Structures are given as C-alpha cells and as structure tokens.
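Let us work through a complete example step by step.
Step 1: write down the sequence.
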Amino acid sequence: MRIITAPQAAALLRDGDSLLVGGSGGGHAVPEALLAAVGERFRATGSPRGISAIHPVGLGDGATRGAGHLAQEGLLKRSVAGTFVNSPGIARLAIEEKIEAYTMPQGAMSQLMREMAAGRPGLLTKTGLHTFVDPRLGGGKQSRRATEDLVELQQFRGEDYLFYKPFVPNVAFLRGSAADANGNISMEHEAVTLEMLSMAQATRRAGGLVIVQVKRMVAAGTLHPKMVKVPGILVDAVVLAPEQWQTYETEDSLAYSGHQRVSLDEVPRLPPGPRRIIARRGALELFEGAICNLGSGVSTGIANVAAEEAILHRICLTNEQGNIGGAPASGNEAGAALSPDAQIDQPYQFDFYDGGGLDLAFLSFAEFDAEGNVNVSRFAGRIVGPGGFINISQGAGSVVFGGTLAANGAPKAVRQVEQITFSGRYARQRGQQVLYVTERAVFRLGAEGPELIEVAPGADVEHDVIAAMAFRPRISPALRPMNARLFVDGLMGLATRLAPARNASARLAEITA
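Step 2: predict the structure and record it as tokens.
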C-alpha cells in the first residue's frame, strides 16, 4: 500500500477505463477529493478520455460536486448509476446525447458488486421486471447512444427474471474514515458503509487498482479489527484528505455515525401545507412495530409526523443505504439517519427489502396513470433515474405513493406515464396493496387502475379532483371524506390510535399466552 496525493490518483486513470465509485447522495462516503482531481486533470490536460463511471447511488450536491466533476464532454463515455438527481451535469450530457447513459435499480447495482467480487456470471433477480429497466421496455437506457444491453430477460424454472451483466473495473475510488499503515480502512465516522468491501474485492479480482480516500492515518495495529471495512490486502493506495467532511452539508455529526444519541423529539415539525397533509395521511397507515422505508421527496415527512405524534419509537424507519431505526435524514442529507439502532452494508439492506422485509414503503410520485403505473425516473425533460425506488416498491408488502395532484397547473395523474418505474399491473398480479395519497384525494390500486376512495372535506369530486386529472378514475361506492384531523393544526392523536402489530409471531404468542 502506498500513500499518494489526489492528483497522483487521478493520473492513474487511463483512457477508456471503467471506474467504480463508492458513496451515496450528498457527500455520504463520497471520495470527493479523488473525483475533483479527475475533473481538474481533464480540464488541464484533456485526459483521461472516454471513461465509464459506475456507481450504485447518485453522487453529488445537486450542482457540480460528486459525479458532477466528471460531467465534461470527452471525459465521460458512459455513466451507469442508480440516479442522476444529484449530478445534473451528467443528466444534461445524457439529454444532449453526449454520453451513453443508463440508470439502474440501486439495489440491483449494489448486489451486483458482490456477484462481481465472487466471479459469478451476474445478478439474477426479479427486481425491475415490467419497469423501464426490463429489456422489453428499454433496458434502463436513458440516451440513444446507449446501445449495449446491460440487462437481459431470462427464464428460470418457468418464471421471468432479469439478468444484470457484470462490469470489469479498472479502478475503484472508495472512501473511509481512517487508514492504518497497512492499508486497513475503517468507516466509523461515516454516515453509511454501503458496498465498499464488495467494490474493493470486485476490482481486485479484475486486476484493477483500489484507491481509498481517508481523513486520517493511524499506526498499524490500532484499528479494532471489527471496525475495518476494507482490509489492507485489497487496497493499493490511500489518499489523505484531512479536510474531508462527513457529508457535503455536515462536517461531523456524531448522531449520523452512531457515536451519540440525540432526542428524536428534536425532529422538526412540518409547516402547514400540502406536504404536511400528504405526510399525515400516509402516517395513518402506520401500525405498531411497522418496518418502513421512506423515499425521497414528500414521503420523508412521515418521519416528521411520527416524531410530532410521539410514535417514532413504536415503528422502525429504515433507508436503503443501510440505516435501521432512528430518524432518516431528508433533503441533501437523505441516506443518513439520526441515531440509528443499526447500520448495515447496503447490499444486505436490499436483500431484506427484496425478500419482503418491509411492511410499508412510503414513496413519492412524479406522475401516475390510468393503469396505476408510477413514474419517478424520467419526466418533464428531466432524467432522474430510479435510485432504490424499484427494489423498495416491488418488495414492500404495502406501498403508499405520495404527491400533489397537480404541479404548476399541470396534472400529475396522467393518461400514460412517460416511463414506468412501478408497474400497476404487476403489483395487482402479486396482490400488493397500493395507495396514491394527495393533498385533496386518496386512491387505491383497484382491478382496473386507481380508484378514488377518499376526498378532502368540502372538496367537490368533479371540480376539485377529476378536473385536475388527465384520466377519469373509478369512484368507489364507499367514497368517504379524508380524516378531518389531517387538516387541523393540532396533533392527530396517533399515540393513542396506532393500529396493533400485524406481524407478531404465532409461536411467540403461544409462549406469552
């Protein structure tokens, strides 16, 4: 293992290389100094050219950092990521047909890193079936220049699966908290751990270079072996970056890293408005002990409502990056969590999600249509990608999609979504329970598509709801008003009205009876 500088690390990239990049969202374990050095090298020398960047999670601050450093014509040939939402420069290159652009399910990409590490042929999974990632609906391609098929439809024991092909990385850029003199990497001050180990193993197996950015160096033998996330036998070089922040917005939160417990009562209260109404209606679906995932956007407000109603300790909120319990962060900090009970590696979190571990998923929608399909990945001239949305929405027992019924006067309930990120038909086939919650109406996924089941008190169904939609939904014969408590300023009283647990073990009940 050698200690080198960020410019020296950037100089190791050659034209045409495939680069694996660790990290998540707004600076969570993102090797920022290494990515910045690559961008600076290209601006100064025009090299490296034509690299392929591969990262399961979107990386960036929504402007120029993270993967945004690579958003330079000529530098980047291909981008394969869970989402481009954090790096608008990459999305712009895709829209302008300057790169081969693919967005894939975050969980599938995360799990694929393990398959690559083991030398297995790829990842076989049902995740992504009947969405835009399915080769029958586009194969995850987000630009016309993206012609190679990275996903195949396969049949196994009479059932359809998707097969995600492996990558062959030449270089991996990873990040940790500390490195010892033997190259062992710890992550004790990071907000997430992700798939750093699998990425290092996959790159080493392919004969590539593993370069890790850390905040500090320590003496050999001083790291507790259980704190080591990437063993030194996998690390070729370490870059010391003492200015490294935990995220782009937070220098060092002990609550994010789990070193300090904070009162979850400190989670801020949502201000009055549509977001609060939608989050409160979603929270009515909670029950004692519910294991949940909160997506980005309006759905993150569930944590605020649960804290305000003093029920956060009676449910379990998780995020796909690996945090279990506590209060998931929102905005640019999404991916972290305040005072989690556990932090596990991201591939294992997605194993749990794909295996049906989630009772409830609270996700946002950009648009939904007459078939019950939901789109969050490409709309209104934007390429966003699915992030963890596909794994989460397909794996959860029940899904609550949230969003306003219209945006800037345009309906979000459309005849046909631009891109299918969630398939209503596939959900019906699997017996999944699905709600679409807005600030003025609630729909459930019925046999023929969304069915109107609730309307805001005092709202006119035709004028206030259907007139704001581009299709006419079926109206339930049991149509009822939305709960009036959603629209008042005080507490809803969830602490005394929370539904009982649904998943108590029958065997345990026998013991305690």
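Step 3: interpret the result. The chain is about 20% helix and 25% strand.
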